[in-house]
Write a structure and sequence with these properties.
Length: 142
């Protein structure tokens, strides 16, 4: 359980850090972001929206609880990264300019996989503790 939790938090922390680092320039409508979006033919007004969506997604995967919100956040962040990869690749950029995005996609998938491993292990421990409690309770009542 401990290794799973540590791995989960390392991957999730790195993923949230990367997505937040990408979100802030978008929120601030950084000139480099504007140039990149113009080169790909996207409207400028979408930049701050994507920035806020990434920031909220990063917060959602870090906050404990809210499993349904986490699922949506993971999906949204991965869609953002895959969409960015597709857009940059199809805008004629060299392979070396868009291929590294797959590292961040892998980080997101790793975080998501270990999130579910952590949930399963926590559920198994909770179930074991509850069955121990039921056994002890029935022994004491006899």
């Amino acid at each position: 359980m401990k290794k799973t939790k540590i791995t989960y938090w390392i991957l999730t922390g790195l993923f949230a850090f990367v997505m937040t680092g990408s979100a802030i320039p978008n929120i601030m409508v950084n000139p480099i972001s504007v140039q990149g979006f113009k080169e790909m033919g996207y409207p400028i007004y979408i930049i701050p929206f994507l920035g806020w969506a990434k920031l909220l997604g990063a917060v959602a995967i870090l906050v404990p609880g809210f499993p349904r919100l986490k699922e949506w956040a993971y999906a949204g962040l991965i869609f953002d990264l895959l969409g960015a990869t597709y857009s940059v690749a199809n805008s004629g950029k060299a392979f070396g300019q868009w291929a590294p995005i797959f590292i961040f996609v892998a980080l997101g998938f790793g975080s998501y996989i270990f999130y579910h491993k952590k949930l399963k292990e926590t559920a198994a421990i909770t179930e074991a503790n509850q069955s121990d409690f039921r056994i002890k309770g029935s022994i004491q009542s006899v």
